Amino acid sequence: MRKDPPVTVKTEPPDEVQDGSYDAKTIGEHEKVPLVIMPYGERYSILRQLEQMKPTVIILYNTDIATLRHIEIYKACHSELFLQIFSLMYRESTEESRYLTALKNETDAFESLFKEKATLLIPRRYETDREEVPRLELSTRDGGGQQADLDERPKVIVDMREFNSELPTVLYTKGYDVVAVTLEVGDYVLSPGIAVERKALDDLTQSLQSGRVFKQSEQGELTRHCREVRALLCALLRATPRLKLIWSLSPANSAEYFAELKLNRPEPDAEQAMSLKGDETTKPIEEDQTGSPDKRRKPNAILLRHMSQHLPGMARGDVQSMMLSQKVRSLRDLFTMPIEQLHTAVGSHADKLHVFANFDFSASD
């Protein structure tokens, strides 16, 4: 006849509360206690039943490590309640071996986590060291004795929207003082004569195809047949002789270019950089004699393109402002206007337009 192995009853002594007011009783001392049988492994069901029933005795017939941890969490959240936990298990059985293996795997997992966290720990110290900015040493014979104070760091004026990129941080670590303002013309101002418009490759391609970069450079116009990026870029450089193009591989490379461009140049003025405004694309709303506001007017795109290409000395923005104004209504008014009124209408370009309109083709060289 087969003899079953003995049953081992494991008990955990109850945790004592601070005031020691609970009344510890064994299972046999309880009278008329409801018995609730639940399957193990159902996490949310176990937690819900523990919160509703608030048991004082729990007997684990099939000891499961996950269920035991849920009970421990419940006991930690309700330390004022008295709770006894019993575990029924055959000695040297597969249930005991499975339970001990789960405990060992849990311990190994925590040890592995602690080791991995120690090796992957990122220091919380921030690198705030700044490099010395490059300076151009001049001989005293060439006026080097009148250099600015070397203790004052050179500064770069940066548009507020550019702080989403890495370049302002790289400039700061390179030793430059970064002045954050809101710019309408350019993204970085290195000196009174140098402003940089930073564009990624995708942004540059879209700007060339839409013609927005031509407006930003104040000259040039998108032609009908220029669809390739290289052709558009060449058209932009040809239409804007003063525009220089620099290809940068990384923010660190851009910071090195900025350092070379700033050598032996005066510091930029933030107030002057903020005062530069872009050209208006539409005419402001004006009220007529009846008191009703007019609709916003836009210049004819074809006429704007041709006139900006052929009128001497006038850029796209100048032609656009002239077409939106009420002072010049046609080319006839423009070419027959006296020089005084022409100065009022187009400003500094009046002399070139006056010579162009009154040029005598029959005159010899």
UniProtKB/TrEMBL annotation:
Q: Please give one Gene Ontology molecular function term for this protein.
A: single-stranded DNA endodeoxyribonuclease activity
Q: In which domain of life is the source organism classified?
A: Eukaryota
Region Disordered: which residues? 268-298
Q: Does the keyword ATP-binding apply?
A: no
* Keyword Hydrolase among UniProt keywords: yes
Stretches assigned to the ERCC4 domain? 155-241
Localization recorded for this chain is: Nucleus
Q: What do the Gene Ontology cellular component annotations say?
A: nucleotide-excision repair factor 1 complex
Q: Which InterPro entries match?
A: ERCC4_domain, Restrct_endonuc-II-like, XPF_nuclease
Keywords in alphabetical order: DNA damage, DNA repair, DNA-binding, Hydrolase, Nucleus
The name of this protein is ERCC4 domain protein
Question: Which organism is the protein's source?
Answer: Teladorsagia circumcincta
